[in-house]
């Protein structure tokens, strides 16, 4: 693991009309690190990831990934960097019109990295890796349970062996046992790929299982950043309030 | 003053929306011309927009042709011009009713379905997922639908023309007592190639209009199920209005003397 920030966000601002979401967010993530952004609903966690992915454009600030400035860099360099990023979406975001196997190898097929005739067997290996049976390959996403959807989405996210993986609320809506299994799979996959990961969640158990370091997002900025093991003794009233789930404290519900 | 301010606000909003729609359309065309192409997705849209619209378009054409024969016979009998029924049916169907009715039926069936499908993909982040999977959503989702609208509507209208004329023939021969061969001779006597071609040009334009409105409203839908519902309604209403206004414009251009 190198010590230079691989993902570097500086003074990031983003507003939607009069609603200010990010107010000068700073974030450094080292290569190969698993970073968790904790925060309540509506605090701008997803917005942060969407800015890095290019799905949203920040109003102000700098975003650098592997030395490439994502706002002012060469378009070819930027698309090369973004091509190395995968994302597991909160609702899985699998394509309803395609069977599971095509969802899993969608990007590989789109980029002509594999032939269509190889797609199914390629997807089978990935599906087995995430603990599912071969029989799901030909099912439609709407025939799968929440936990299965998340596994398929994870298989899709790691199919291209990305250098960077984003996880958006990977355990939202899952029971604690399934959530724990998904967290374990995420950690295993990230370690296996040697990828840099950013997970956004409000699930403390998920945070402990997946992350190396954690930051608490509050009022558009990271309020506290530190190793997961220091989270319980952070000395920060907001972190303590979040961990213990207390309604009284510096954090207020925004959504 | 407040009236003028309101009028100005509405005008600016209209121009903004029109500009956004034009940019959406041009961007899609620009992307559609460059590889990669998505033949499977294009084929799926051809089937969905063309083949699966056949029953509804065919039935509409059949009954329209039948009603047209009945109505024109009732009207023309007042001044002893019943012989013109076959000509009126074929010209009305090929020039106007075929493309317009097929367009409106497709706007209801396909425009709504495109807006609902693309809108659901938007609110469930499937469109964002496409972007992260190195696939341009306009190219993958919108371009195949526009192409299918452009090519399938003329084919549908061609079928609708035949079925509509056949509907008129059924009523003319079996209800109004025309001689079958005379009816057929009258059908083709005044029909010119331009009558059919103008209808097909209209159909291609309506096909693009309907798929464009469905895709545009679906693509920019927001606010969950309610937003998708709103997008579906807007797609059908704006698609239908666009068909009727384009029909006038095209008729004025194609049939000016």
Question: How would you explain this protein's 3D organization?
Answer:
The complex is a heterodimer of chains A (255) and B (257). Helices cover 35% and strands 25% of the residues of chain A. Chain A is an alpha/beta fold and 255 residues long. Chain A folds into 2 domains: 177 residues, 3-Layer(aba) Sandwich (Rossmann fold), CATH 3.40.50; 69 residues, no CATH class. In chain A, strand 1 and strand 2 form a beta hairpin. In chain A, helix 5 packs across helix 6. The N and C termini of chain A lie far apart (37 Å). Chain B has 9 helices and no strands. Chain B has 2 domains: 31 residues; 212 residues, no CATH class. With 257 residues, chain B is an all-alpha fold. Helices cover 85% and strands 0% of the residues of chain B. Classes of the chains: A alpha/beta (255), B mainly alpha (257). Chains A and B meet through strand 6 and helix 4 of A and helix 5 of B.
Features:
heterodimer; A: 255 residues; alpha/beta; Rossmann fold; 2 domains; six-stranded mixed β-sheet; four-stranded antiparallel β-sheet; 35% helix; B: 257 residues; mainly alpha; 9 helices; 0% strand; elongated
Give a summary of the structure in a few sentences.
Chain A has 255 residues and is α/β, with parallel strands linked by helices. Chain A has nine helices and ten strands.
Distance between the termini of chain B: 45 Å
Largest interface: A-B, 23 and 14 residues
Care to count the β-strands of chain A? 10
- Strand fraction of chain A equals 25-35%
Strand order of the largest sheet of chain A: 6-7-8-3-9-10
Strand content of chain B: under 5%
Principal-axis shape of chain A equals: globular
Present the secondary structure layout.
The complex is a heterodimer of chains A (255) and B (257).
Chain A (H helix, E strand, L loop, with lengths): L4 E12 L2 E12 L3 E5 L6 H9 L6 E6 L2 E2 L5 H9 L1 E4 L11 H5 L1 H5 L5 H14 L16 H13 L5 E5 L7 H18 L2 E6 L2 H7 L2 E6 L2 E7 L9 H8 L11
Parallel strand pairs in A: 3-8, 3-9, 6-7, 7-8
Antiparallel strand pairs in A: 1-2, 1-4, 4-5, 9-10
Helix pairs in contact in A: 5-6, 6-7, 7-8
Chain B lengths: L1 H31 L6 H12 L3 H23 L8 H39 L2 H7 L4 H38 L5 H10 L3 H27 L4 H31 L3
